[in-house]
Amino acid sequence: MFWGIEISKVPVKFTPAFDLHITTACLSAVAKDTGRNVLQVKYDGKTYSLCSLKLNATEHSVLDTNFEEGKEIEFSVSGNNTICLTGYFVDSMFGDEEQGEDDEEDEEEEGEEEDEEEDEEMEGEEGEEDEDEDEEEEEDDDEDDDEINAELEQQILEQALKRKAQIEADKNKQQKKPKQEEPVKQTTPVKPATAPAKQTATTTTPTKQTTAPAKQATPTKPVTPTKPVEAAAKPVAAAAEKKKPTSSVVTLPSGLQYEDLVVGTGPSPKSGKKVSVKYIGKLTNGKTFDSSLRTPFTFRIGIREVIRGWDIGVASMKVGGKRRLTIPADLAYGRSGAPPSIPPNATLIFDVELVSCVQ
């Protein structure tokens, strides 16, 4: 039979006439307060919390709680909303008629149990006979299994012996093959040995030809006028000295390298003064990233208006000179580079011409 009640802040006490089973607790349809509402029950002198409900969050809770008939129950709500409880009374409410029916059912069940015991005794005897027969069949099956296992083991052993013999035969074949190939390997180095001999012969012939012109040059020795020769040698030496800087690369302690392509004849720049240069800048892969060949670029040298590599490399130039500067990254744009043209840690190569300088 259905049972229901509404519980608010005012406690509700009652004593159920039958065993009571509570299944559901939910907020009332007119609930407005958004605070927490705790359903409590006092039973056997102790207070318990059955569930906690909250508007717009948990508004319903499924319960499975039984209360014994004849014991006082007190429900209350801790909160501002009303909670509705629903459930039903259990079978004890149906009275003595069902109790009589239960007694008849118990007698029938006792009779059925006795019949089942007799059936179990008969089945037990038949089961013992079946077990004996099963044991005999299992013994026969075990013997058959042993015979089959023995045959399988014999077959596996034969296959393993055949496999082992095949592996040994393959090994013998592999050992024989390299012996037949060895003479071929020995003959191959003999052929190239003759080629170098021919090459050495050809290299010796130029030496004979070079010695012949040396003998023909001997008539020049008796020439007595040594002084004019020395005078002529001096301009040659002077010209050689002028050309030396154009092919030599100088490496400074800072890591900067420079090569004078043309040595200037004008003055050198002074620190803090303006200089004008024409230049072209390239990466080590040959890619040009900047140039000022038509219009000279002007800056004050030595005060860090440009990268350090320029302050160091241009300071020792002379007006009219051309120099190739190879500047490491720490004297140029360092780890950060100058994106997108100059990548990080890039070594830069500049061809610089010193156009003018202020004295």
Describe the structure concisely for a colleague.
This protein is an alpha+beta fold. It is 42% helix and 29% strand. About 20% of the residues have low confidence.
The helix/strand series, from N terminus to C terminus, equals EEEEEEEEHHHEEEEHEE
What's the pLDDT, averaged over the residues?
78
How much strand? Answer: 25-35%
Indicate the overall shape: flat
Q: Kindly report how far apart the N and C termini lie.
A: 118 Å
Spans with pLDDT under 50 lasting ≥5 residues? Answer: 92-97, 179-233, 235-246
Largest sheet report: 6 strands, antiparallel
Number of helices: 4
By helix and strand content, what is the structural category? Answer: alpha+beta
Oligomer: single chain
